[in-house]
Amino acid sequence: MSNTALPPREVLIDIYRKAALIKQNDERFRAVIKSGKLAMVYYSPRGQEIIPSAMSVNLGRDDYVVTIYRGIHDMLAKGVPVKQLWAELGGRATGTCKGKGGAMHVTHPASGVMVTTGIVGASLPIANGLALAAQLRGEKRVSVAYFGDGATNIGAFHEALNMASVWKLPVVFVCQNNSYGEHTKLAYSTAVPNIAIRAVSYQMPGITVDGNDPLAMYQVAREAVERARSGAGPTLIEAKTFRFFGHVLGDADAYMDKGEKAAAMARDPVPLYRAWLISTGHATEQELAGIESGIEKEIDEAVEFTLASPFPDTAELRRDVFKEEIAA
Amino acid sequence: MSAPAAGMKVATPKAAQMNVVQAVNLALDDAMAADPSVIVFGEDVGDKEEGGVCGVTKGLSTKYGDARVRSTPISEQAIVGAAIGAAIAGMRPVAEIMLMNFTTVAMDMIVNHAAKLRFMSGGQTHVPLVLRTMTGAGMGSGGQHSDYFEAWFAHVPGIKVVAPSNPADAYGLMLSCIEDDDPCLYIEHLLSYWAPGKPPARGERVPIGKAKVALAGNDVTLISYSGMMAHCAAVAALLAKDGIQVELIDLRTISPWDTETVLTSVAKTKRAVVVHEAVRNFGVGAEIAATVSEQLFGSLKAPVQRVGGAYCPVPFSKPLETAFMPGEAQIEAAVRKALS
Lengths: 328, 340
Prior knowledge:
CATH topology of the largest domain in chain B: Rossmann fold
Helix content of chain A: 40-55%
Number of helices of chain A: 11
Strand content of chain A: 5-15%
Structural class of chain B: alpha/beta
CATH superfamily of chain A: Thiamin diphosphate (ThDP)-binding fold, Pyr/PP domains
Strand order of the largest sheet of chain B: 2-1-3-4-6-5-10
Radius of gyration of chain A: 19 Å
Shape of chain B: globular
Strand content of chain B: 15-25%
Order of helices and strands of chain A: HHEHHEHEHEEEHEHEHHH
Oligomer: heterodimer
CATH architecture of the largest domain in chain B: 3-Layer(aba) Sandwich
CATH architecture of chain A: 3-Layer(aba) Sandwich
Shape of chain A: globular
CATH class of the largest domain in chain B: Alpha Beta
Largest interface: A-B, 45 and 44 residues
Number of strands of chain B: 12
Distance between the termini of chain B: 43 Å
Largest sheet of chain B: 7 strands, mixed
CATH topology of chain A: Rossmann fold
CATH superfamily of the largest domain in chain B: Thiamin diphosphate (ThDP)-binding fold, Pyr/PP domains
Distance between the termini of chain A: 59 Å
Number of helices of chain B: 12
């Protein structure tokens, strides 16, 4: 853990609660997919739990998030209800989007998750627009765009950073750098060793942080969110992390260096943080176990709810294309 | 682009007339005055940048301020993305992608996001943006500044596509598009920007999805939109001298198109010709011809004729460019073929 000033205990616990939810939820998702009860292409966020957890304790419900296909951690951290999330991934009518979006397009405005995109780089320009609306109305809302390191080589990233800087938009760009764009190593695809360097071109702060360190991540997140909220403009955060289950579930990881994944998994950020909370006296084993069993129960209910939920009616094909339902 | 192009004849509208540039400007002005959530942005749209390359947004930033009317970087993805985000958050952005060919660099934002977010979110969000764009061959701009791509967008569920042909429709459709709760692509025709016409009645909306019978007739239905309407009207006038009564339909909205008006007309005339400047192959004409054939096959007296641009990029050299575009002789020949 870094030596920055500690956030209040309740914030430390809140970060853990979010991270544990993401971890346990992911474990169950993978188990249920493997059991054949749910069928989907799944992009596991396991290993990247700390980043959105530490971001989200600095955000209010009204603050906006735009995330990507590997974004279930971002959604859960921001408060998307577990039940509706599961139902959405199960393609059920009771899902956040009536089953019409799926994992890559989860939307839940009530918790501020406005768009989830399956297109690399697309989260940034849209986050700008949400921030623009907040700026024009004089609201104090902040807009967060999550994306991976691979997205920083696409034009939309550069267009969005430039526009956000020129217009001083209240936006925080959070790059979750897990060292791989699909199967390609960062060093093979990217001209800079650290993504944060790219902020220099757009005259905004660019900060590289260990995204698996809750205290460091919290501090960087807090400063960026405050800067955006105060009207001082955008920040690019590069949060270094690692994904434990490859690009897509079932990935053979043959493109990784031998031992690379095992080494990263040995530094699993969630149990490390758990141990730190207990060893430093911020939490007791009993307290954290209580949180975890509460989460487990919530997930049990979500699975049950999903499997018992109906699939959407085919009339949904004609709904939500436009405001007016399309005639049969 | 600079407007009007060198050498072009520009008529000054008479007092009682108005051109499309003025009509779109007036619609934006009226919409901004009525609703503070209406914002305008795009390349060069502010008055410091001369109020748009053709002056469509002239005066708006002076009147409504640089916050609501913003010139942007040349960043089409960022422009459309900003419009999408702002629209989801409840604003009514009118974003300009200067030329229709430039929509190609923002296709992800338009097709994957603006058009689909309402559906993919199960109706929790919607994207009430207007995307203004101008286009058309005939100005010597060559292959990357002249294309009509309306068929591409009409093929994407979730986005409405309109293409007015005259000032009154330009005004009324703009108001309707701004007030519509779904994304609208609003196509402006460069060559007829400065052609004077009947001014709009202030505040009068033209409904999206409603075609207009521009000329009533019983012999053949001629269907068109945007810049090609003027040529179709000229052909109809010419044929009237031979006693041929053309029913001329201005589609105005390409998607969702007004099947009722078109089918009612063709059921009466039993002959149809569709004209657009876009390349004929796989064009809007194919969709209309197919629908007319499906619905009225037994009563048609001739196959539906399609007139469209040649199957090649828009060429630069003047004679080639002219030959690329559907001309009045071609339209007339197609109508006569439908009547034969």
